[in-house]
Amino acid sequence: MRVTKFKNTIKNILFMGSALIFSQAALAIDLQEIKKQGVLRHIGVPYANFLSYIKKDDFELLSGLDVELVKGFAESLGVEYQYVPAKWNNAIGKLTGQHAQFKNNQTIIGDECVIEGDIIANGVTILDWRAELADFSNDYFPSAVWLVARADSDLQPIHPTNSIDKDIKKVKRLINGRDVLAMEHSCLDPNLYNLYSTGANIILPATERRLNEMVPAILNKDAESTLLDVADTLIALEKWPGEIKVIGPVSQEQRMGAVFRKDSPELRKAFNQYLDDIKKDGTYLQLVEKHYPSVSYFYSDYFDNTHKLGR
Amino acid sequence: MKKLKRKLSSSRLIIIAAVLLAAYLVSILAVTNFGQTRLKESQQRELNLKVQSYTSMLEYFFNVTNDELTNLASDKSMLTYFANLASGMSMQYGLGASLFNLNRELNRLIDHTEISQQSVYQRLVLVGYDGTVIADTAKNPDTAFDMVNIPHIREQSLTMRVVKDGKCSYVQLVKRVEYAGKPVAFLVADLNRKVIISQLTAQEHADSRSRMDLISDEGDIFIWDSLTTELQADEPKIDEKSALANKIYFEIEIENTPFKLRSWFESVNEKDIFTSGWFIASLSFLAVPVVFGLFYTFIINNANIILRTKFEESHKQRRFLSAQNQLLIEEIEKRKASEQELAYQASHDALTGLPNRNCGNDRLEQELVRAKRSNTNVLIMFIDLDNFKQINDTLGHSAGDQVLMQSTARLLDSIRDSDVLARLGGDEFLLVIPELKDLDSATYLAARVLSLFDAPFIWENQELFISTSIGMSVYPQDGNNVQQLLASADTAMYRAKQNGRNAFSFYNAAMSADLQRTLDLDGRLRQALARDELEMYYQPIIELASNKIIGAEALMRWHDTEFGFISPDEFIPLAEKNGLIHLLGEFAINKACMQAAEWQKITPLHIAINFSSVQFRRCDTLFEQINAGLIQSGLPADKLDIEITESLLFNHNEEVITLLNKLQAMGMQLSIDDFGTGYSALSYLQKFPFDKLKIDRAFLQNMQDSDSDRELVNAIIAMAKALNLKVVAEGIEDQWHADYLRIMNCEYGQGYFYSKPVPAKVFELLLNKEKGLV
């Protein structure tokens, strides 16, 4: 009931918002305009515990770390929060009004499109190609990409060497000739980590998949192993204990941040300020612990920078 | 029903109540005793239950703890860790996160498992099968867990043991953790001792007097002691053990654990509980007011019974009384009537209806009071019927009554309303006339009363002539009270009688003098008799035919030294009144008989002695005196003449006749004296055996001049002759008398013509002279 009402509200706002955009296409939509319009549009792709969006018939559920983050931000601005569902391949377009893809290690600019939102926040890894298209906020979550294999795989986890580079090399050596599941446009894009050069048999999903469908895919024996970001891995380890195993790292340590149009620096600035505030008062840590309890341990160094972890 | 009720309501009810009370008290004591025994048993049971509840609680506690540890051992985080570990994952890549989760779960168990706001677990340690510590909730994990290596722990899924850490002992649970069917680690849980203690002491308090220990083979845990010493003592000391000897002791195993709960409790009779002797004492004390109450009720009931009985009685009596009351009212009416009648009778004469003496006196009193007030005179009139006694005696009482009634009627007709007429008794009437003007009117009134009796009274066709004598006194001159006035009137009345009756007399002071003389004479006469001052005189009795002394009449003479010569007419009646007549008579008999006996030497002389009728009231005494006189003097009985008067004949009785016959039979002669002066009834002459008849001198005095008197004497003599009586004439004073009587064949005579009464010596001279001896 509440959801239905919410949906109707969104529809109305969408309609009004669209009308505004079309009439004032030339105008940049920054903090002032958003405050004026009284709504902050959150573009999100469902991903791990950062954002979870389920919509089926009348049922609609929106949750996750980034949802609460953006909702809090909107509240701090004194504007309405609005969610704009998106996919990895159209999220940038919905933000900037210009579709763009990263293929074969280069950015391909696509068609123009309607700007539907003001901020992308769903555990977006700060990647160079993305930074060319839009601005990232200060990072607020660490990440990395690991290779995860089925438990019955003969791939053996590497013994850490205290050197991330050596560990990556060890992993890349291991996957030579192995089936590795990956996904373009996301942080699991094999191009990002030069996996094609490892001799691994990169398998891209035949159909469009979500990142949290990667582990079920290998359990379904679509592949022997898969790339998976740390956050998702930790969740999967708890979700399917004894069924998967982490072999080792594929990427360097990464950071995640919110994405803004390049012409909305005030909004980004305001977001950064908001981030600083909630990191300071401990609200942010509570959010992280709520959505990623084990990550806080795993990246204790990262989070210790802003506050003290521990009980 | 009523009977039953009475039975029940009586003191039996009280007795029943007392018995019930006693039974009640006994039963209460019995019940109390029984209750104490039961209480001990129940305390035993209760304590047993309590201890069992403790043990079951502890058992449950350990079960729950075991479950919790089992859950933790099979928790996903545990499985994940060991799965990841088994998969060879490195701590850096993935396993660390699993360990973190595991740690978090351990801590959560500690944080979230609380009983009474106390953590159940003090510490949780996950120890690998090889003995390495995987996870430890302790901040400073410095405790070694080498004990895990003890073989029997490895064999069991759960091991419970007591670990001694310095002074404190605590329970440690070791849970074996398995992964993929193989033991991979041990979960070591240190239980919070306080939780166990609080579990076991939930129902204990400082006053509960109990002690508990949790014991096992590996050591004991002290739980609680409020019995011997202060809390927190770990081990019972030796002297405490002896102190625990008499306590109620339980040792109960806690199932599914190696522990036993050892407990001691204070036994019931050592506690201050209300079933103690104090309770019984207070209960008995409670009976005291009840007993008092019962006693009081008993008293009240008794009083009640008395009261009720009284009430019923009074009710009965009231009904009876109301019945009686009616009778009483009737009776009262009757009484009132009769009282009025009695009062009337008391104050009035039954025969005449006149006020009686008392009433008359009262009325007189009233009149005197009135007269005193009005300063007037009152005339008191004493009216006495003359010779009423003779009428009564001769004609009977009915004649007397008739006379009285008719007299009353005549008097009442003649007096005023203000006058008072009363009957004083017998033939005496009192007439009170107030407001007397003067003595003349009194005289007039008295004459009128006398005249009322002029007309004869009629009784049974007979005419009775009755006169009255009236004595009068006047208030205030003759006395100022009733007694004086009545006495004065009485005196006056006697004077009137003395004056010849059918007359009235006023009281005067001289009458009082007469009275005084009478009183004085009374005394003098007694003295004279005692001093032998009385003297016998003798008057010769002459045989008229021969003119010779044939006898003498003995006459008593009294010459008083103070009053001089006193006539027999004065002192004989006095002696008759005061009873001296008997002594005088005896004196006369003795003297006369002695004298006569002496004179027998000279001539055979008859001696005549006068006897008063009063002397005949004691016939026996008189006979003795006469007989004694004759015997002592030796005088022959035929020489003694007994002279009696007519008055004796009126009052005669059989005794008198017998005596007279007896004396005559002895030879004595009987003479009737003073014949003709009284009511001479000729029938008496026939009835009594008289020998002589003496004609009173009154007949002789006028005989010479009066034909009628002369005829009377003739008649008397003729009658005496006819009755064969000798005649003695008295009062012969001259020759004529002597001659006439001699002619008339009168045998004897006496009088001054021959000789007056003379003393014995003079009489003796007369005798001797006649014999010619002198």
Q: How many E-type strands of chain B?
A: 28
- What characterizes the major β-sheet of chain B? 8 strands, mixed, barrel
Biggest β-sheet description of chain A? 5 strands, mixed
- The multimeric state of the shown protein is heterodimer
Morphology call of chain A: globular
Category from helices, strands and their pairing of chain A: alpha/beta
Residue-averaged pLDDT of chain A, rounded? 82
Question: What is the end-to-end distance of chain A?
Answer: 39 Å
- N→C terminal distance of chain B: 124 Å
Radius of gyration of chain B: 76 Å
- If strands are numbered along the chain, what order do they take across the biggest sheet of chain A? 4-1-7-16-8
Detail the poorly predicted runs of chain A.
17-26, 307-311
Poorly predicted sequence stretches spanning 5 or more consecutive residues of chain B: 230-234
**Element-by-element helix/strand order of chain A:** HHEEEHEHEEEHEEEHEEHEHEEEHHHH
Q: Helical region count of chain A?
A: 12
- Strand % of chain B is 15-25%
User: Radius of gyration of chain A, rounded?
Assistant: 20 Å
Inertia-based shape of chain B: rod-shaped
What would you say this structure looks like, in words?
The complex is a heterodimer of chains A (311) and B (774). Chain A has 311 residues and is of the alpha/beta class. Chain A contains twelve helices and 16 strands. Helix content of chain A is 38%, strand content 23%. The two termini of chain A are 39 Å apart. The relative contact order of chain A is 0.16. The C terminus of chain A is likely disordered. Chain B is of the alpha+beta class and 774 residues long. Chain B has 24 helices and 28 strands. In chain B, the strands form six sheets. An eight-stranded mixed β-barrel of chain B has the order 19-20-22-23-24-25-26-27, surrounded by six helices. A five-stranded antiparallel sheet of chain B has the order 4-3-7-6-5. In chain B, strands 13-14-12-17-18 form a five-stranded mixed sheet, sandwiched between helices. Classes of the chains: A alpha/beta (311), B alpha+beta (774). Chains A and B meet through helix 8, strand 14 and helix 11 of A and helix 3 and helix 4 of B.
